[in-house]
Amino acid sequence: MTRSVPPPAELLEIAVEVARDAAATAYRMRAEGVSIAATKSTVTDVVTAADRAVERQVLDALAKQRPDDAVLGEEYGAAEAAAAPSGVRWIVDPIDGTVNYLYAIPYCAVSLAAEVDGEVVAGVVRNIFTGEEWTATAGGGAWRDGRRLRCSTETDPGQALVATGFGYDPGRRSHQARVIAELIPHVRDIRRLGAAALDLCLAAEGRVDAYYEKGLAAWDLAAGGLVAAEAGLRVTGLRGLPAGPDLVIAAPPALFQPLHDRLADLDASGGP
Ligand code: LIP
């Protein structure tokens, strides 16, 4: 197998085409009626037939266009070889915000990113209901529907609107609730909207000032994290660690340190 790594703009074109078709399928299946097909980590961690069908559609579309790439997806895992002979690995969340999707709340998205040698270089997040589409390439900026995005310029943590989310495990949720109880007096307000990829995109355009969450998987973070970083947010973990399952903080430079320090003091990356 020979290495075949197109430029990020070409990878983004593929991602956008595949994500648009996937979002159309998700929207059609939602209109036809969906139900819970299975549960995963807990009884509230649900998967629908649409999650599986959409990811299968993405896998098939990528296999047709880029047969030597690897793919990591929420529902089928590393469906292809973990190491990508071509040097490109795709990371897909077929429906981020599955509970919102199940309840027909218009805040859920197809998230698809391309990773080269471990670095995400292109990503798209498309809201299944509204068609809002965020894209980014490494070094190429973040965009929504053709408009270049810049993050919030808020400098006062007490005026910051902060998005976050909760895991499915009851023990983790209790710890996260304790963190939020201590945080909320020190910020403008909290928003728990239910889809990490979209939360990161809202932060990219200042529709929330910052975002943090413990427990994100690679598919929750990959595309939205690139959009946020390309819009000027710092996207990291705690104490110099990279963003990952322990914690993701996405904040503008002026807010990052005070939010980081308060989350560190509150042990936001701790708990079950
Ligand atoms: C969701 C995340 C969200 C989190 C939810 C859930 P899913 O992903 O995007 O940030 O708070 O609990 O994990 O499960 O809908 O793909």
Automatic annotation (TrEMBL):
InterPro entries named in the record: IMPase (IPR033942), Inositol_monoP_metal-BS (IPR020583), Inositol_monophosphatase-like (IPR000760)
Cofactor(s), by name: Mg(2+)
Keywords from the named record: Hydrolase, Magnesium, Metal-binding
Entry's EC annotation: 3.1.3.25
Residues binding Mg(2+) 1, per UniProt: E74, I95, D96
Signal peptide residues on this chain, from the entry's feature table: none
Positions that bind Mg(2+) 2: D93, D220
GO biological-process terms attached to the record: inositol metabolic process; signal transduction
GO MF annotation list: inositol monophosphate 1-phosphatase activity; metal ion binding
PROSITE patterns: IMP_1
Catalysed transformations (reactions): a myo-inositol phosphate + H2O = myo-inositol + phosphate
Family listed: Belongs to the inositol monophosphatase superfamily.
PANTHER family: INOSITOL MONOPHOSPHATASE, INOSITOL-1-MONOPHOSPHATASE-RELATED
Protein name per its UniProtKB record: Inositol-1-monophosphatase
Organism expressing this protein natively: Micromonospora halophytica
